[in-house]
Amino acid sequence: MSEGTHILGAVTSGSLTAGLSARLAPGQSVEDVRMGKFVVVEGRTHRFFCLITDVQLAAANPQVLAEPPDPGDALTAEVLDGTATYGVAELAPMLMLPRAPGARAEPVKTVPVHFSPVAEAEEGDFALIFGKDDQTHFDLGCPVDMEGVPVCLDLPRLVERSNGVFGKSGTGKTFLTRLLLYGMIKKQQATCLVFDVHNEYGWQTESEDRRFVKGLKQVFPSRVRLFTMDEESTARRGVQPDHVVTIPYSAIEVEDVRLLADELRLNPTFAESAYLLVKRFGRTDWLKGLLATPPEDLKELADNVGASPESLNALHRKMEQVASLSFVKEKVTEDSVSRIMECLKKGYHVVLEFGRQKRRRLSYMLVANILTRRIYDQWVQQTEQFLAGGDKGSKPRPLVICVEEAHNFLSPGAARQTTFGDIAREMRKYSVTLLVVDQRPSGIDSEVMSQLGTRVTALLNDEADIAAVLTGVSGAGNLRSVLARLDSKQQALLLGHAVPMPMVIRTRDYESVYGDEQPTEESFDRMVKELGYSA
């Protein structure tokens, strides 16, 4: 323990499963001890890194509480403070570090001895546990009561599993997500595909305090590609996109429609009819052949392909809804889906704006399903080729897919029908993961929630949402009260795979990143060569 360390108190009781109780030192005001604070317990053979999960008032003699001093008798209250009355901090041990030179922190397997001193964590403790801001670590914020002390995420560990950003409306989920994406892009640890439903990630947007903040395209103009589903909406905001999305009939396959069965209210027999059309017209022309057939000729087409006339009529009506979407065309000069896939495979980050199309859930689901299904197929194929031949040149780049309003794709019903559910459950071994953003995590399938490696969570009030975020988390009971008492702005609880222990932070101001030194094209090319990704 270094000279000048602030001692908060000493351990008086506890257990490995229930946590520790520490009596606050005389003169230590209970009002200065905050839930979520990071503290260090100095045991005899180990240092224990803990989180304060509760603060209590206690008394050595209950009679003192039965006859409290008069409100105006400050002297008596001061005399009793620290002796007859005192404060207690409840601690949840998260990590333990042997005192041997070169030892590494490890999960807690024991408890410190009685009267072990409890001290405020210092800057060196944070660096020891969370690392320093470098090529593999990103400064996401600072402890709530220690300005300027970085708390870093381990980015390689972050991108190797799916993750979540949660919080009720107005708590800053979008800014948190933008900060995470910024870190992944700047440190060049993954390629990012962002489904930007509300036009908040690509170009500048207004913060809740009425300031304009830059989008990812403005911060990384050479590395981010901006695609739009609504050219008029993008133009009205004075934004020049890199590409306007148009999708030809030939890009829509039967599997894409299967994923929209609930949204289009298709009956179970539609797939049989659709595959009969594929057999008749071909995999890329089945939709064109169906829509080119006048309604009065559908019975004849049904007879020719062996389909039910009623099923074919229903399929025709539903696919006319798809064809009525402004970005769906019979023919296009360039297939936007192929263009996006090409950008991702070359390591360019893609922000896909939806503009007014966000009002139509069908638009969002169609495009997201088409892209994710192709990503699934191509990343699996490329990974299998790499594993078979050991050719580093074919190693797929880690890809993070950021999806807002994630419950649309990952609800208990949808998660088993959409490719998003497959990605969350099984694609990390193929270098594809999700960054799911939602204000109601309880609406997401519990199996998917259990697969999320790291969770960055702002304030949640609903008990079901809190329980969902803590699904599969060790020591969830201790963290429940911490999560429910976060400030409504610029605070978050970090927990999971990319951080050694849960930590409450004051999140970094997104505008602070403008002054950071940005990676050059040369540094990007060097990273590609070092990691062996395909060019």
**Strand elements, count:** 23
CATH topology of the largest domain: Rossmann fold
Percent in strands: 15-25%
**What is the strand arrangement across the widest sheet?**
9-8-23-22-21-10-20-19-11-18-14-15
CATH superfamily of the largest domain: P-loop containing nucleotide triphosphate hydrolases
Count of separate DSSP helical elements: 21
Describe the model.
It is a single chain. The chain has 535 residues and is an alpha/beta fold. It folds into three domains: 7-121, no CATH class; 152-244 and 334-531, P-loop containing nucleotide triphosphate hydrolases (Rossmann fold, 3-Layer(aba) Sandwich); 249-328. The protein has 21 helices and 23 strands. The strands form four sheets. It has a twelve-stranded mixed sheet. β12 (205-206) and β13 form a beta hairpin. The chain is elongated and about 95 Å long. The model has no long low-confidence stretch (mean pLDDT 87).
Q: What is the topology?
A:
Blueprint: E1 7-15, E2 19-24, E3 38-42, E4 46-59, H1 62-66, H2 74-80, E5 85-98, E6 106-107, E7 117-120, H3 123-130, E8 137-143, E9 151-154, H4 155-159, E10 163-166, H5 173-186, E11 191-196, E12 205-206, E13 212-213, H6 216-219, E14 224-228, H7 231-236, E15 243-244, E16 247-248, H8 254-258, H9 261-264, H10 270-281, H11 286-291, H12 298-305, H13 309-323, E17 328-329, H14 336-345, E18 349-353, H15 361-389, E19 399-404, H16 407-410, H17 419-426, E20 432-438, H18 446-451, E21 454-457, H19 463-469, H20 476-484, E22 491-496, E23 503-507, H21 521-531
Parallel strand pairs: 10-20, 10-21, 11-18, 11-19, 14-15, 14-18, 16-17, 19-20
Antiparallel strand pairs: 1-2, 1-7, 2-5, 3-4, 3-7, 4-5, 5-6, 8-9, 8-23, 12-13, 21-22, 22-23
Helix pairs in contact: 12-13
